[in-house]
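QA checklist item 7 of 12: single-chain prediction sanity check.
[x] sequence parsed
[x] length recorded as 232
[x] structure emitted
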Amino acid sequence: MTRRNLILTIVFAIIVLAELTGRLIENITLEYLSKPLIMIWITIYFLLNAKKRTFRTGVLFAFFFSWVGDMFLMFSDGYDNEMFFYAGVGGFFFAQVSYIMVFLLNTENNIKGLLLRNPLWIIPFVGYGALIYIILYPSLEGIMVPVIPVYAISLIGMSLAALNRRDRVNLESFQLVFTGSVFFVISDSLIAINKFHAEIPRAGFLIMFTYILAQYLIMRGLILEREKPVSR
């Protein structure tokens, strides 16, 4: 690890520690100071370390919309305003769409995606999404009835797109990004269950821990993705 990256990692550890501590002790000030910095740090680290340039715009869109979602959800918690929650879901919807485009359109070779070779992999993901919706449905009202399944499709689609990278990129990049996508699904599932079904102990801590891990792993995996050789 270079000196620059070591310093950046220490800074990130401080940001994450402040955010998670704020969640554990329910200190809104700590959250307001630290949460906006998470995706800013991830973006800076990515830009300083990613070798592949062809997908930078799409990745930056995903990071930006994730930051927008973070801010609105933070204000939703702080001001107990449902409109902020809806806006946060919208931000993350566009983040998932951006990630899907990046995962599907950028590869290191011309091998077919895993889902084209074995579409049965789709079944457990769709089944999980359907199960979560069935659990949540009795508590959903108004605009949330159609919004939740639309967002769930984008979230599950993002993780499927990450799975589809198998053999299309180097193994380490695939493993990190796919693992990150699974943690993203876990984090958003916790949000939905805690908000619409049943209160989860230490929900704020668990949601942010899995979310930070998700974004970090996806970012590190994308840094390792290599450019496709130019055909001659």
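[x] summary fact logged: The two ends are 35 Å apart (CA to CA).
[ ] second reviewer sign-off
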